[in-house]
Write a structure and sequence with these properties.
The chain is mostly helical. It is built from 17 helices and 2 strands. The protein has one domain (17-220, 242-253, 284-434, 506-542). Helix 8 packs parallel to helix 14.
Length: 543
């Protein structure tokens, strides 16, 4: 039997290693293709080797963004069974790449969030190029480490740490805008807390209006269209503010009735959202009334109504993420390309199509090859999610960004999504706390009763064994007492085990929470240290 088990384990290990080898092969093929194309297409340009290597680092960074960050968009939908893993990867890959290519913008800020003062480099474009290369590679390596550790971290914070570390190594601590860094540090608390509170608030609202009602179907007919309409408003507003801001001038040129602004205003985005929300409300109300005939009066049946909105949310979040966070991979690459082509240093740079394609394709490939690990972590390894809980997390992801953008608060989409998952998990613990306490109290009483029973039997046995002249009945009773004591010891052991289990009931896995928070806190400094080391290595090799 043991030999069969060992052989089975060996077979699984060989199968797993074979799959890992295929994934690595695809990843290396993409990296080599990017390196080769960028080198050959820039022939004759001074420092074209730097550009080719930078493109390689950018492609590696884009793959790590896909492997780590995209899980936040589709993880809840997969964890709740609204989407299969394969379906999630296909949808996210298509919409991430579409967001990057369609709405990624023509121009990108070379230094994310203005965390360093590029004037400190002066006219030394070589030092700037080395710093950007170091930042890209350091951020990518840190994301790779975090993905291997199954810790969802902020890709924005990773590149921020990389740029900061390389900037300090190149020009000293004075190059850093420490006020901006303080705001970024504040987002470690603001993002998850806001996300958790909003997600918990929506889940509690769903429970109060639908789940706790006696006639759940009738409540669902009334309230589910409202919740989905609110979600539609939030996502259209979110998508307009975040997903379309880089191509807004082009949209204004087409839709001439819109006010001429460089990026969409909250009022315009909110109006778009209201129009869509009204349409969605009436469509969903009609649809749910028709489906009500087949619905059972149970939570499981009502859960199904949130499946389609979750699929849409995964797609829209992926589109907005691709439009925004592709800049984490191509921003430094565009800066390097601009510095090599012009010989100067600029705070903004045009994005060549091939650079955008590297970012978009890299995110999709990274997600397809290495995304499932983090998707499982986000979807099921922090707390158990169903469609209602996943819906609440998706709501938190969009509404938190809308609120934060209007208040000027720094937030991280990764921290918001994971904070939302924490929020729904801790809400479950809070709502179930009275039930859990009753179970613990009952189990404690059982343990006390079993102990008393065991002590009584042991005392009787001790009395009989101390008796000098025993008759036949005494011997029979001693044998019976031994049997009863053995049974009672087994019962007491089971009762203690049950009590221990009841005390351990937690709907949020504490080990996962500790690991993820630790990864969040060290992301910026870890990426910064890596980046500084890489910068000195590049500088040492070239000087």
């Amino acid at each position: 039997m043991e030999i069969k088990t060992i052989k089975k384990m060996q077979k699984e290990a060989i199968k797993s290693s074979g799959f890992d080898f295929i994934r690595l092969g695809f990843a290396l093929f993409f990296l080599v293709a990017v390196l080769s194309y960028s080198f050959m297409s820039s022939g004759g340009i001074p420092n074209n080797l730097f550009l080719a290597i930078a493109a390689l680092f950018g492609a590696y960074m884009a793959m790590n963004i896909g492997a780590n960050d995209v899980a936040n968009n589709v993880g809840p939908a997969v964890g709740s069974k609204a989407l299969t893993m394969g379906g999630a990867i296909i949808i996210a890959s298509i919409f991430e790449a579409s967001g990057a290519l369609i709405a990624g913008g023509d121009v990108v800020k070379t230094i994310k969030k203005g965390i360093i003062d590029i004037s400190a480099f002066g006219a030394n474009s070589d030092s700037f190029i080395w710093a950007m290369m170091a930042a890209l590679l350091a951020a990518a390596v840190w994301l790779n480490i975090a993905t291997m550790a199954k810790a969802p971290v902020s890709t924005t914070h990773s590149i921020v740490g990389g740029v900061m570390g390389a900037g300090i190594a190149a020009a000293g601590f004075s190059i850093v805008a420490w006020g901006t860094m303080g705001k970024i540090a504040a987002s470690w608390i603001i993002s998850p807390v806001l996300g958790g509170l909003i997600a918990a608030g929506f889940l509690f609202s769903i429970k109060k209006t639908i789940v706790y009602r006696e006639d759940k179907v009738e409540a669902a007919i009334k309230w589910v269209p409202i919740f989905i309409a609110i979600m539609s408003w939030a996502f259209v507003t979110y998508l307009t503010l975040k997903g379309l801001k880089k191509v807004w001038p082009h949209i204004v040129d087409v839709l001439i009735f819109l006010p001429e602004t460089k990026k969409p205003t909250f009022m315009v985005a909110a109006i778009f959202g209201i129009i869509v929300a009204v349409i969605v409300y009436f469509v969903m109300r009609s649809t749910i009334r028709k489906r009500a005939l087949s619905l059972k009066n149970s939570r499981e049946s009502i859960n199904i109504l949130f499946t389609v909105p979750l699929i849409f949310s995964a797609a829209l979040l992926s589109f907005a993420h691709g439009a925004n966070d592709v800049a984490n991979a191509i921003g430094p690459l565009a800066a390097i390309n601009d510095a090599i082509m012009t010989g100067g240093i600029s705070s903004k740079a045009e994005i060549p199509l091939w650079v955008m394609a590297v970012g978009a394709t890299g995110i999709a490939i990274g997600l397809a090859l290495y995304g499932p690990k983090l998707i499982r972590t986000v979807g099921s390894e922090i707390t158990e999610l169903d469609q209602m809980r996943a819906f609440s997390v998706a709501m938190a992801a969009s509404i938190t960004v809308i609120i934060a953008s209007q208040l000027g608060l720094p937030v991280s989409s990764t921290h918001i999504a994971v904070g939302g998952i924490f929020g729904v998990g801790f809400l479950r613990e809070y709502l179930q706390s009275s039930t859990i306490q009753e179970e613990i109290k009952h189990d404690e009483e059982v343990v006390i009763d079993e102990k008393k029973q065991l002590q009584a039997l042991q005392a009787e046995l001790a009395t009989l064994e101390a008796k000098e002249h025993k008759n036949q009945e005494d011997y029979e009773r001693v044998v019976e007492l031994y049997r009863m004591i053995k049974e009672e010891e087994t019962l007491l052991k089971e009762a203690k085990k049950q009590l221990k289990t009841a005390k351990k009931v937690k709907y949020v896995k504490r080990d996962a929470v500790k690991k993820i928070i630790a990864a969040w806190v060290i992301t910026v400094p870890a990426a910064a240290v890596l980046s500084a080391i890489i910068y000195y290595m590049i500088r040492g090799m070239l000087l």
